[in-house]
């Protein structure tokens, strides 16, 4: 990174000093030159490998933060003169600004990664609150049985049994009255029988001792009295037989009364018990529903907080990285239109391709993080809605917002990636040349970004995105053409340090090498306007 920026700055400074005055105002070119010199000093400080102390001598920044601050300062110095000076000056300053914005976008993306790493743990912990909601929902379900139907059925049975019982009791009372009447008749007849029998015995004795003619009349009276006693006895036997039948029927009815009374009491007891259970269930269910409502509120509060933190601390950085990468593309595009041609234009186009790669990387990271976040939110929201019905609807709507955001990002990415791949193919017409090799390498990295976007998509990726993710293939060799690098006489001589830099690792203190424009050949910047 340091070698690349130093080479670019040296080239810009030399271009500014040697630009012809006939093409633009000398004072304006001087301002460009002074801005580049000032930006050079700022960037040199950022490349020293240590943090310069502040005015008060304090050193509280990390090297990565300090370097990023110097890049932003340099951007602030160069932005006002981006459209000033000679065409070559404008093209070169725009190219350098594009590079700085691309590097800054990479650093911002790193900050977003770190912010997401801290928040993703909290996002995962939403499952804990969902589990609490599930437990409360299960508890409420255990007391959700409604026994009103059972109670109604038991009441019907009780009424039927007691109606039957009252009928049987009435019959038993009738039979009991008949038995009592029978006994009264038996008692009366028994008294008559005993009276007639005693009279018959007395008359028989009198007739036995009477020797007169009268004893025949007495004997006849004794026989009539005995007949009356026997008749009463016969009626008693008949009534006893009738009473035996009545008492048998009465016993059956009494047994039925006892059984039905026991059944009716049991039905009423069960109905009372069911009512008590229902009342207890309602109380416990209300308690469980209260716990469920509290669990849902806790989940919703955490859901809102995590979402708000994501928007404030992660999405804001992702959006910023996208904007910086977009700005890099805009500036790099302007650099290709700055009046340069030949090898200088080719290098400007390579710088644009690198800006496109930085844009692809920023978008891929944005898509992946939003997808990861949206997928977790969607899982939580759908389960919460299942458990809490309409109360969880807003969770689903929030999760859908991130799914929609990712869809928008992917739609725009398809257009940006298509432009990047088109440019890469144009620059890789000769895969054996240095430019062709660099373009093929950048194309492969852009395709890799497209693949990462396709894998992270919450919905099925389009065929366009799948095609963009396909690894590049070298074009068929064409007939030799005259060399394009016809260097104007005033261009700077080739410099060994302008060779292609080796890829550098992604570290917080150093942006990825392939997020920057490749190191220019010395003929990138013509000396004259």
Tell me about this structure.
The protein is mainly α and 529 residues long. It is 76% helix and 0% strand. The radius of gyration is 54 Å and the shape is rod-shaped. The chain starts with a helix and ends in a 61-residue tail after the last helix. The relative contact order is 0.13.
* Overall mean pLDDT: 77
What percent of residues adopt helix (DSSP H or I)?
over 70%
Instruction: Decide which structural class fits the backbone.
Output: mainly alpha
Number of strands: 0
Oligomer: single chain
Query: Biggest β-sheet: count, sense, barrel?
Result: none
**Total DSSP helices:** 11
SSE layout and pairing:
Blueprint: H1 2-18, H2 26-46, H3 63-78, H4 87-124, H5 126-142, H6 148-209, H7 215-336, H8 343-388, H9 393-427, H10 434-456, H11 463-468
Helix pairs in contact: 1-2, 1-4, 2-3, 3-4, 4-7, 4-8, 5-7, 5-8, 6-7, 7-8, 8-9, 8-10, 9-10
Notable traits:
11 helices; mainly alpha; 529 residues; 76% helix; disordered C terminus
Structure in a nutshell:
The protein has 529 residues and is an all-alpha fold.
């Amino acid at each position: 990174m340091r070698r690349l920026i130093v080479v670019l700055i040296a080239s810009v400074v030399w271009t500014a000093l040697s630009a012809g005055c006939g093409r633009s105002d000398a004072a304006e070119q001087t301002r460009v030159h002074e801005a580049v010199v000032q930006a050079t000093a700022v960037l040199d400080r950022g490349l020293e490998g240590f943090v310069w102390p502040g005015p008060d001598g304090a050193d509280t920044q990390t090297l990565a933060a300090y370097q990023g601050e110097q890049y932003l300062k340099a951007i602030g110095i160069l932005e006002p003169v981006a459209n000033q000076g000679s065409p070559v000056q404008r093209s070169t300053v725009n190219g350098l600004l594009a590079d700085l914005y691309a590097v800054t976008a990479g650093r911002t993306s790193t900050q977003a990664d770190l912010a997401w790493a801290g928040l993703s743990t909290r996002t995962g912990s939403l499952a804990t609150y969902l589990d609490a909601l599930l437990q409360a929902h299960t508890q409420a379900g255990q007391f959700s049985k409604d026994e009103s139907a059972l109670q109604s059925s038991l009441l019907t049975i009780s009424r039927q049994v007691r109606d039957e019982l009252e009928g049987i009791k009435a019959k038993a009372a009738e039979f009991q009255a008949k038995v009592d009447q029978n006994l009264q008749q038996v008692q009366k007849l028994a008294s008559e029988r005993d009276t007639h029998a005693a009279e018959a015995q007395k008359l028989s004795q009198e007739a036995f001792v009477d020797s007169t003619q009268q004893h025949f009349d007495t004997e006849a009276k004794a026989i009539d009295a005995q007949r009356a006693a026997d008749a009463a006895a016969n009626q008693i036997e008949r009534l006893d037989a009738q009473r035996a039948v009545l008492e048998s029927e009465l016993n059956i009815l009494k047994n039925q009364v006892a059984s039905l009374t026991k059944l009716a009491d049991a039905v009423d007891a069960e109905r009372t018990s069911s009512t008590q259970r229902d009342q207890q269930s309602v109380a416990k269910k209300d308690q469980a529903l209260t716990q469920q409502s509290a669990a849902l509120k806790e989940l919703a509060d955490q859901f809102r907080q995590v979402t708000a933190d994501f928007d404030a601390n992660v999405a804001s950085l992702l959006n910023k990285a996208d904007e910086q990468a977009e700005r890099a593309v805009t500036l790099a595009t302007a650099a290709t239109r700055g009046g340069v041609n030949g090898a200088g234009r080719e290098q400007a186009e390579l710088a644009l391709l690198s800006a496109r790669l930085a844009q692809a990387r920023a978008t891929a990271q944005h898509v992946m993080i939003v997808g990861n976040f949206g997928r977790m939110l969607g899982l939580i929201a759908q389960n919460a809605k299942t458990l809490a019905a309409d109360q969880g609807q807003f969770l689903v709507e929030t999760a859908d917002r991130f799914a929609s955001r990712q869809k928008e990002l992917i739609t725009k990415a398809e257009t940006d990636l298509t432009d990047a791949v088109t440019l890469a193919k144009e620059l890789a017409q000769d895969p054996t040349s240095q430019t062709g090799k660099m373009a093929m390498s950048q194309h492969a990295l852009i395709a890799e970004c497209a693949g990462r976007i396709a894998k992270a998509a919450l919905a099925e990726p389009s065929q366009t995105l799948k095609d963009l993710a396909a690894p590049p293939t070298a074009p068929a060799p064409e007939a030799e053409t005259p060399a394009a690098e016809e260097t104007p006489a005033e261009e700077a001589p080739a410099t060994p340090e302008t060779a292609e830099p080796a890829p550098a690792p992604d570290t917080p203190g150093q942006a990825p090498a392939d997020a920057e424009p490749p190191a220019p050949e010395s003929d990138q910047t013509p000396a004259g306007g």
